[in-house]
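Incident log entry.

Two folding requests arrived from the same account within the same minute. Monitoring flagged them as a possible duplicate submission, but the sequences differ. Recording both here for audit purposes.

Request one:
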Amino acid sequence: MGALHEGHVSLLRRARAECDVVVMSLFVNPTQFAPGEDFERYPRDEARDAALAEEAGVDVVFAPSAGEIYPEGFATTVHVTGVTAVLCGDPRSRGPEHFDGVATVVAKLFSICSPDVAYFGQKDYQQTLVIRRMAADLNLPVRVEVCPIVREPDGLALSSRNAYLGSDDRRRAPALKRALDAAQREIAAGSAAGDAAASGRAVLAEAEVDPEYFEVLRADDLSAPSAAPGERLVIAVAARVGPARLIDNCLAEVPVSGARPNGTDPVSGAVTTNVGGT
């Protein structure tokens, strides 16, 4: 949606390395913003974004207007069930309408651009599940690749909304990653999902960050975990830090006797990456 940062650019570089032609869509999608959210003030700098895209080797920047994507009389919505019912899709969070907006605009972008491969970031983990489900159910001939989270040296996941953070908010924001790490360690030690989530919430409370949610769920479909050995999990958090609503996640695995959890994406093998370090 613009305001490109190194996380976005890493997707562009991956596409450039693997594809003959690279198209980047640039569109702040109004239908995925809830009433009262930051659509009007969402950071926009199309000229800067286009320059970064060119530097990364992008061949085409597709930057339509809202009227081109949603012309007068537009009356179609793509609705994905199941994975949209929790986390950001919970009515207490952004609500399922958020993912209706995401699925609809991505379906249109896929239809317009006809990509063979589409690259998305793991930071929006739930969104990647929604898009994969939508593409599979509609028999869209596109492979969805999920790429690693890119982080600041202190662990904060890169996000366009980080621009909203004041100095005190920026100091507190890395607590999201510390909370994920605490929960991930609990899972690796054999703790139950509920206990791992409680550990993560305790880290947030210490940093005076009130989470919108902090959940440990099955990685493939966001259902409740069964604690079966080898089960892949996603630990997901959303929280408002000052004016910014931030999300983050990490992968974990219920330990098997004699095996170490790998912490990788169950489909893409993505792991988290720090800017300036590992």
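Request two (distinct sequence, not a duplicate):
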Amino acid sequence: MLLFFLDWLSACWPASDLAALARITPRAALAAAVSFLLAIACGRRMIGWLAAHFREPNKSASPDIERLHQAKAATPTMGGLFIVSGTLGSCALVCDWHNPYLPITIGAVAALATLGACDDLVKLRTSRRGLRARTKLIVQTAIALAAALLIYRVNLAFDGRLDLVVPFSGRTIALGWWFVPLAAVTIVGSSNAVNLADGLDGLAGGCMISAGAALAVVTYAAGHATWSAYLNVPHVPGAGELTVVAAATLGGVLGFLWFNCHPASVFMGDTGSLPLGGLLGLLAVIARQELLLVAIGGVFVAEAASVILQVACFRLTKKRIFRCAPLHHHFQLGGCPEDKLVVRFWIAAALCALVGLTGLQGRSADLPAKIQLTAIDETSR
């Protein structure tokens, strides 16, 4: 919508420099601002509506966690609607819908949000703790495979877009059709990892800010010919448009954190955590940086790994490694106050994002001095 309006204005006033507003960074800033303001402006009303219809039951497999979270019973949930609706509305306004990756990304995010909403509704309407794990995984995998196949079709016609980049080495591995299962695993794994991290007030949202911002940089670099050459990453024309989507999401998450910080007025629920995690996976797949995502989302990886290790160890030895999994519950049961624990996880997430970005190795010695010392203009669309 914005691009159409700018094209119309440029045609009316050819001497104006309105084309500059169509570039990625101004649109990304606008997308983040729109999502944030929508979340803040609509927050109280939406929380009131959620409180009337969707209050979080205090259900946990651990009696100790149920005891610690007694005060959180009946808190409104499904607050992921803040983020998803703000992101979709913002993207509809400022994104370039001619971009081949955009409909795939938006469609997958919307599908995962719908799955998350179904999971939340099962928790709210029944005595169960959500959808059956197998059912949930099957639907997630179907969504991820559909997105992976569509991205594969887009990338198939271009050299290097099906290669796996090995961070910190500059090497690539040709995947061929193996691109599809790897992409699906990345999207499903990332979606579930963020879902597992959503257990304390502000934890998943705060960690998402660091990981999402880092991947916004990665997608921007991948979509920019000069930056991709400088940072020694695959050039993926069109990937830069996903920076706008990432910015819109981050704006929505910041607006949500306004109400989700301790003590939370609303919970994200699976309605928010599943699509947020899926978006991280999609950004990494499109930018061809699946392995770098492991470093950038280190906190989410640690949360998921703690659950896998806990389950595997208990089945094999009948003993537990952690007091409780995911990892944040281990520290919570160890006596760490929730607000202090969340901030420490935020710090860890920011450090992981910085470490991950070092995997984009610059090649300054190979570039002309003019490019190294001057600002680089971005591509417009």
